[in-house]
Amino acid sequence: MHHSLMNVLRRHPISCxxxxxxxxxxxxxxxxxAIDATDVDSSSxxxxxxxxxxPRSNAAGESAQLTEGLATPPGNSDQLVGAGTKRSEFxxxxxxxxxxPIRRLGSDLMLPSRSVAATEANRQVPPDYIVxxxxxxxxxxxxxxxxxxxxxxxxxxxxxVPRVGPVVVAGVRxxxxxxxxxxxxxxxxxxxxxxxxxxxxxxxxxxxxxxVTKPGAYSVSSLATVMTGLVQSGGPSVAGSLRNIELRRNxxxxxxxxxxxxxxRGDKRxxxxxxxxxxxxxxxxGPQIAMIGSxxxxxxxxxxxxxxxxxxxxxxxxxxxVADTTRLAIERLSERNxxxxxxLAMPRDGEQKVANxxxxxxxxxxxxxxxxxxxxxxxxxxxxxxRPGDYxxxxxxxxxxxxxxxxxxxxxxxxxxxxxxxxxxxxVQEVQYDRALxxxxxxxTRNNATKKVASSDDAQAVTQNxxxxxxxxxxxxxxxxxxRIVLDLKAESAQLxxxxxxxxxxxxxxPRPNTVGVFGSVFNGGSYLLSDGNSVEDILQxxxxxxxxxxxxxxxxxxxxxxxxxxxxxxxxxxxxxxRLASLQALPGDTVFVPEEMNKTTFMQEAKDxxxxxYQFGLGAAALKTIRN
Length: 629
What we know:
629 residues; Poly_export; Soluble_ligand-bd; Poly_export_N
């Protein structure tokens, strides 16, 4: 094979470079692997550029032999538990006071990941990186010579370039690598260009000691920094400091790393690159306080000497947008037996120092209800107004001012029938209504329990009565109050009363109706057209009048504004015997109801009828009573 190569060279003398190749092949065998015929590309036999190839044994084996892989940290990296997962006793205490999870500031940066080493290895190599043992150099040449080589720095700090020989690169800056190799290759070849970059980097071994989750030795990329080393080892334990981390090299402290510098201020100057055999030592955790409430990042903060309330606020990003900026509260752990809370006036007391165990709370200025006189009101106005919709009104606005904000009444507005609902009234009604239902259910149960059964027919009647009672209670529970307030208006009113509005009020102005409803024990219940001057008596006659079973002494009229007028409230007596209800003028939107006589129907039938009244109208009357009280 050597004879074949020499014959090719004799037939095709192409350049002085081949003479150098022949000399180097015979005399430099001691310092470089031998090159066989397969190391010269076939293009060498022609007029193309010289092709440089690595010997197979070197290309496949030397790199793997000299370059260490990134070692796995002690134990399973998936099981590493750092400051980002465990919770200290003080964090638990602060979380209980805040009613939400509170963690150490910076703990989320310490979550270990299996991809940390790979991420560091793929980082861009900085210009001041120092080439060392185990680094891989990717060398590309073109022009009179063609090469694409991956060379690993050997234990002597050299790489071996085919036909050029060994080149010492250990200790050379990455930025100077191109110039060094260009000069060295230029001693052999002319008219070429060269590019040298770093490929796979060497790994370095460092040590983590002190208050860390997993102390021990770790291997990472030579690009790793202090921060990388901390994350790779799981970070400080719950008893370890995030602000007192030392980088020790050859027994000397090179730097003290404070994670808050990078986390809060973006200062990364302390995050120095690691070197082989460096030691990261994590000290014990310092004094701590908790910042809770309306701050931008509630957290447990590790203090340094002299930190003040203002410093603590700066660590968590300051107060939130909705915070009360005039005051803070401090609960001191040293005085927890008395649960003593000190209120600070801000910003005057911002320079007061904080102590270990303090819990500083910022207050929310929005959730606390303001006095009605200071609240802006969100009101919905619907129906016969020029511009229905939702409106935000000044604190002292009235109903009429709300209507004016919506453009005023239309010509069809029936002011007397205005439906005015209030959220605060609805909540009070719900409480009272649920209490009334419980009392009613208790009365029904007691009534059924005291009944004596003399026969099977009586027992069947009692059972049926209990079933009917249960159905009635279920129907009543399905009915919920609406919060309607009955307004004191006259039939011809064109204005609403000067009642201040509240947040959440709803105002519905209906169109003017032209009918009156008649229901209950009448011969032909329904709605009837109202004529001018019609009385309630006239409307009843249109419905055929009361039936024989009607309780005429309990007839009542429900007005469009939600008020109720009855025979009993107007002087008593049957409607045909001089009752004022008989001559009462009927108004648009009235509903006349004629109930059944009690002794001519069962109790449950009467309850059913009154459930209908309660569903449609009774809650409005209850709202009026609530407001007046």
